[in-house]
Design goal:
TorD-like; disordered N terminus
Length: 204
């Protein structure tokens, strides 16, 4: 029996396409929240791409991970997102949309999170409009982490309100950042995935 048919026969199970979408969001969230450790670098180094732009970006990321190590990855992450005073990039929706942190986009996000029953994790120290947090939320909406899996219309509403209006710009900046090597390929992956999601939602 094909995997797709087996999945459909299980009540409440995610369609394979949605499971893969959630996996990609989680993948981006993990690497944007903290630098990869040795185990994750090893896993990433085994990635195989395809002929699509996203597949090629995944393959490139795998090759770069193979040449990297936790020390170099940690330094790159620090230079990009932490720095001395601040990193090269500020991965927050409020900053990309207004030029300042803790502005109206963050307030609207918090309001929508409360409406959807999404609470900020106690381990999170960053504002909720950090790109990693938003990737995590999208994964949770798809998988039903906050209750039942969110209908596609609700996923689209959240994506368009809090992600599509700035995330592609952020990922493009990550691709071109001066201190970005390993993360340049992650930027390509993120930008490509955002384009795929935006196109799919526009057709829904």
């Amino acid at each position: 029996m094909p995997v797709e048919e087996a999945t459909r026969e299980k009540p409440g199970a995610l369609a394979q396409e949605d499971a893969l979408r959630a996996q990609m969001y989680r993948f981006l969230a993990r690497l944007l929240a903290a630098p990869p450790d040795a185990a994750l670098l090893k896993t990433v180094a085994e990635l195989e791409g395809g002929e699509t732009d996203l597949g090629k970006a995944m393959a490139s990321f795998g090759k770069l991970a193979m040449k990297s190590d936790p020390v170099r990855a940690d330094q790159e992450f620090h230079d990009l997102f932490i720095g001395v005073g601040r990193g090269e990039l500020l991965p927050y929706g409020s900053y990309y949309l207004t030029g300042f942190l803790h502005e109206k986009p963050l307030s609207k996000l918090r309001s929508d999170m409360a409406r959807l029953g999404i609470a900020r994790g106690e381990e999170r120290k960053e504002p909720e409009d950090h790109i990693a947090s938003l990737m995590d939320i999208m994964a949770g909406l798809i998988t039903g982490e906050f209750g039942d899996p969110a209908p596609l219309a609700d996923q689209k509403e959240f994506f368009e309100a809090h992600i599509s209006n700035w995330a592609s710009h952020f990922f493009a900046d990550l691709e071109g950042a001066k201190t970005s090597v390993l993360y340049a390929a992650l930027g390509s992956i993120g930008r490509g995935f955002m384009e795929i999601e935006a196109t799919a939602f526009s057709m829904s």
